[in-house]
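Inverse folding, one chain.
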């Protein structure tokens, strides 16, 4: 009597088909992301296909209940694992899609009235006088046009921020229209001003910008990245003073990284204005102004830039689960956080306080730029550590919208492939520019002398030499 063949249940057929589909999706997404070297991708393809075949054979076998049970367990675990991998892949694709040049910068405007005035909303200023600064903002005319859609004020422009402030306080203007980075500049230099006005209208204007990237093959050629940390929360596209100014020189052949920090108050010549100002004020005119000014200062070519703000740093550090940052001194920040001399494990808020503090140090901003470089090094070390695997999705979420860069996706994925293929150990070195304290007039705040740091030419020349040495090493 012939033995009856055992029927294969539809569930097992469905499981086998599901494994095949998920395997194909996983491999297609890896190919699309293109971050694995060719030989690694080939090995992954062979491995996943073999696993799929083995598990499918186990669950589709017509004899052996135990074998099928084991195959079922492994098949389900395999599917769960690949689903998690697919989630990682989709997060990566979403992140990479947002990389690359952002063709606009955002100017944020406020309309101010004196606190004791009767003006409470924009419509109250119809037919009234409104002062503004004519030289500071690329989007000023667009800002005026936006206001004129609602009211018809009499605009009075001046090219001097001190005159604008004093005329406003003397009631020569009923109100002023001012970009928020310039308003922050007034508030910093006159801490009584903030108590004398009220904001009655706020809006933003997006201004077109040009890509200033000097592209190279970053897997073979050394390159410079300018890092700008602006002194605001919220949108990174906003123009604002650049409190962090660094040039990161990367040589993919020697696996060396040089971080060159420049004090925010460095007294430099603004590239497009041909006038003396603090380096931090260059950020008011956009990242392109900061880049060009630093290029002229150090006599180098900057290939790419990365722009972040306060929110960026906090989100990234928290997503990494905190970082260990080295402090040369024991100190307490103005926010009340205490740091030991040596390594300190910090979360996002404590990291931000660490890089912003300067009043606790006798060397002030000189020590602050050293701490900022130490934080960059701590972030790099945490990002290339094995623990990044468990923090990967949270890190991508934190990075979403937290920075702007003109490094394109293809360059970045090529660099990641090189890192995976070679697994090099990177050597990181920090240097900083120095100078002497002084008070002098600045382009952005004409009429009043502000604190500046006069460049020490020896440290500038040393930085230029070091950067060129890293760039030229084979």
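Residues assigned per position:
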């Amino acid at each position: 009597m012939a033995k009856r063949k055992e029927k294969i249940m539809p569930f097992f057929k469905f499981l086998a088909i599901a494994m095949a589909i998920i395997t194909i999706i996983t491999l297609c997404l890896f190919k699309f992301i293109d971050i694995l070297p060719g030989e690694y991708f080939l090995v992954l393809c062979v491995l996943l296909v073999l696993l799929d075949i083995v598990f499918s054979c186990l669950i589709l076998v017509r004899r052996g209940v135990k074998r099928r049970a084991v195959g079922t367990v492994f098949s389900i675990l395999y599917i769960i694992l690949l689903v998690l991998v697919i989630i990682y892949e989709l997060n990566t694709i979403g992140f990479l899609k947002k990389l690359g040049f952002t063709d606009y910068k955002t100017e944020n405007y406020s309309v101010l009235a004196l606190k004791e005035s009767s003006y409470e909303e924009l419509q109250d200023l119809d037919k009234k006088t409104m002062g503004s600064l004519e030289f500071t903002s690329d989007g000023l005319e667009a800002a005026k046009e936006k206001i004129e859609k609602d009211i018809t004020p009499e605009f009075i422009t001046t090219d001097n921020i001190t005159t604008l402030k004093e005329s406003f306080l003397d009631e020569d203007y009923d109100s002023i229209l001012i970009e928020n980075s310039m308003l922050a500049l007034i508030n910093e230099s006159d801490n009584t001003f903030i108590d004398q006005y009220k904001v009655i209208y706020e809006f933003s204007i997006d201004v077109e910008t040009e890509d200033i990237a000097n592209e190279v093959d970053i897997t073979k050629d050394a390159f410079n990245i300018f890092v700008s940390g602006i002194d605001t929360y919220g949108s990174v596209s906003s123009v604002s003073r650049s409190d962090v100014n660094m040039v990161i020189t990367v040589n993919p052949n020697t696996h060396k990284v040089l971080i060159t920090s420049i004090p925010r108050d460095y007294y430099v010549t603004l590239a497009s204005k041909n006038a003396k100002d603090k380096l931090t004020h260059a950020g008011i005119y956009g990242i392109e102004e900061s880049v060009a000014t630093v290029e002229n200062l150090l006599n180098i070519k900057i290939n790419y830039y990365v722009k972040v703000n306060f929110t960026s740093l906090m989100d990234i550090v928290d997503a990494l689960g905190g970082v260990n940052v080295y402090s040369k001194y024991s100190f307490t920040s103005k926010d009340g956080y205490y740091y030991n001399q040596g390594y300190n494990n910090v979360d996002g808020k404590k990291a931000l306080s660490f890089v912003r503090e300067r009043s606790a140090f006798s060397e002030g901003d000189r020590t602050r730029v050293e701490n900022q470089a130490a934080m960059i090094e701590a972030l790099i070390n945490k990002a290339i550590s094995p623990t990044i695997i468990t923090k990967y999705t949270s890190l991508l979420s934190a990075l979403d919208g937290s920075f702007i860069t003109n490094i394109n996706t293809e360059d970045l994925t090529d660099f990641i492939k090189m890192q995976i293929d070679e697994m090099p150990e990177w050597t990181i070195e920090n240097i900083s520019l120095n100078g002497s304290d002084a008070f002098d007039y600045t382009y952005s705040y004409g009429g009043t002398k502000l604190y500046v740091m006069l460049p020490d030419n020896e440290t500038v020349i040393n930085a230029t030499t070091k950067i060129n040495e890293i760039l030229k090493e084979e």
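The chain has three domains: 10-94, 106-208, 223-472. The chain has 14 helices and 19 strands.
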